[in-house]
Amino acid sequence: MSRTIAVVGASLAGLSTARALREQSYDGRIVVIGDEVHAPYDRPPLSKEFLAGTASLDDIALGAPDDEDLGLQWRLGTTAVGLDHLSRSVLLEDGSEIRADGVVLATGARARRLPGGDGLAGVHVLRSLDDAIALRDDLAAGGRLVVIGAGFIGAEVASTARKLGLDVTVVETQPVPLAGPLGADMGAVCAELHADHGTRLLTGTGVAGLVGTGRVEAVDLSDGTRLPADVVVVGIGATPNIEWLAHSGVALGNGVLTDAHGATNIPGVVAVGDCAAAWSATAERHVRIEHWTNALEQPATAVTTLLGAGEPAPTPVPYFWSDQYGARIQFAGSRREGDVARVVEGSCADRSFLVVYERDGRPVAVLGMNQPRLFTRWRRQLRAAVPTAP
Amino acid sequence: MIPVCPTTALPPGEATRVEADEPIAVFNVDGEFYAIDDTCTHQDASLADGWLDGCAVECPLHASCFDLRTGKVSGPPAKTPVRTHRVVVQDGLVYVQPGSPADGAA
Ligand code: FES
């Protein structure tokens, strides 16, 4: 009987896994299980072009014409509810199960919600296509938008909504937005884009609660301010979808714990993408990365591990980007508290610059705003500088 | 034909963008010149800002790869090829002919 590999998750990481399996000459059966009814689609445009109405569902489809040749068996609109590690079977919500020789966990993450925010119309999170359609419809009515959380998703939604003509306020608990990924100095620089484009940014203030009956009417802040709101978007991060693995024997932490090459503690089971927390030799801990590029590149490594087919490729340098208010922000590398940020090109005031983060005089990360060409060179340089041995 | 620049202004490994109806990116690969549509078919990025690797360019935004000779996608996420354009070198000047595919391109 031919072999079966079950890929649980049908977004970028799941699809990239299926492609990598064929690329690495696996010719057995591949079953891809996805809880959404939609064929794989690209999430980044959901807060930008798709939300603005300038990209269609077709434009954001991930599938390419060549994917027909992959010969995949799709089980869309089907939630996996458990994994039996002895028989390596994936249990599905309809009671059926898929027996497999190898299992790839790629169930992603879901948007964190505001406690008590459920059930009020006009309150949104943004993670899935259905989320984006609902938010788009609500934004079309115009009015006042309050975005809770000034991370990248929050900033992109604010930017899109400004373009659509809404009155926008962004609320952030931290004193400086994006200080985690970019450091306080550069986080502050990027946050200035809000004011440049007429978005109000309130920092260092939490949300006390949402006001409204049936439909949201206002957001109460912890400092006593009441912000009137017609639409609210909650952008406060994401939680890995791993609860379904609770009794599977798979080791879990802040995600499915894997080694540097995607292997879990269960033989024949690997994990990729937003649900996986892979061991990082540089950080000396398990790191769960939610970047799009990670979901694209990591599967090739995990597939090599799963097939036992030689040396996995070295871990790529983390990379993410954000498009907001017409500015392109790109970041690559790993930044830590204490790294020194140095502007090597352009200026922050011009909203066009390249910043290199240095540790002990060595570049470890790079941030560009509207500097794609120079950024690419630096990103390459970081890639080359990363030691190949884990 | 659109004049691009003197050959000396575009050394090997370099790229430049030419404004046309649809902007065009011109590359010098070890003395050979190639021209393709500048805008990545995936989303909105300029391929002239990308990374040259042999006869392929990697998009600066999400790393799609295109073969400069054929315009074909040699790495995802892009799904659609870019158009190629014929390049002519005359009297030390580089020209592109928008709309007429490079020799050997599909
Ligand atoms: S815009 Fe070129 S790969 Fe996405």
TrEMBL record, chain A:
<dbReference type="GO" id="GO:0005737">
    <property type="term" value="C:cytoplasm"/>
</dbReference>
<dbReference type="InterPro" id="IPR028202">
    <property type="entry name" value="Reductase_C"/>
</dbReference>
<dbReference type="InterPro" id="IPR036188">
    <property type="entry name" value="FAD/NAD-bd_sf"/>
</dbReference>
<dbReference type="InterPro" id="IPR023753">
    <property type="entry name" value="FAD/NAD-binding_dom"/>
</dbReference>
<keyword id="KW-0274">FAD</keyword>
<feature type="domain" description="FAD/NAD(P)-binding">
    <location>
        <begin position="4"/>
        <end position="298"/>
    </location>
</feature>
<feature type="domain" description="Reductase C-terminal">
    <location>
        <begin position="319"/>
        <end position="386"/>
    </location>
</feature>
<dbReference type="InterPro" id="IPR050446">
    <property type="entry name" value="FAD-oxidoreductase/Apoptosis"/>
</dbReference>
<keyword id="KW-0285">Flavoprotein</keyword>
<dbReference type="Pfam" id="PF07992">
    <property type="entry name" value="Pyr_redox_2"/>
</dbReference>
<protein>
    <submittedName>
        <fullName>Reductase C-terminal</fullName>
    </submittedName>
</protein>
<keyword id="KW-0560">Oxidoreductase</keyword>
<dbReference type="GO" id="GO:0016651">
    <property type="term" value="F:oxidoreductase activity, acting on NAD(P)H"/>
</dbReference>
<dbReference type="InterPro" id="IPR016156">
    <property type="entry name" value="FAD/NAD-linked_Rdtase_dimer_sf"/>
</dbReference>
<dbReference type="Pfam" id="PF14759">
    <property type="entry name" value="Reductase_C"/>
</dbReference>
From TrEMBL, chain B:
<dbReference type="GO" id="GO:0004497">
    <property type="term" value="F:monooxygenase activity"/>
</dbReference>
<dbReference type="GO" id="GO:0016705">
    <property type="term" value="F:oxidoreductase activity, acting on paired donors, with incorporation or reduction of molecular oxygen"/>
</dbReference>
<dbReference type="InterPro" id="IPR036922">
    <property type="entry name" value="Rieske_2Fe-2S_sf"/>
</dbReference>
<protein>
    <submittedName>
        <fullName>Rieske [2Fe-2S] domain-containing protein</fullName>
    </submittedName>
</protein>
<feature type="domain" description="Rieske">
    <location>
        <begin position="2"/>
        <end position="96"/>
    </location>
</feature>
<keyword id="KW-0001">2Fe-2S</keyword>
<keyword id="KW-0479">Metal-binding</keyword>
<keyword id="KW-0408">Iron</keyword>
<dbReference type="GO" id="GO:0046872">
    <property type="term" value="F:metal ion binding"/>
</dbReference>
<dbReference type="Pfam" id="PF00355">
    <property type="entry name" value="Rieske"/>
</dbReference>
<dbReference type="GO" id="GO:0051537">
    <property type="term" value="F:2 iron, 2 sulfur cluster binding"/>
</dbReference>
<dbReference type="InterPro" id="IPR017941">
    <property type="entry name" value="Rieske_2Fe-2S"/>
</dbReference>
<keyword id="KW-0411">Iron-sulfur</keyword>
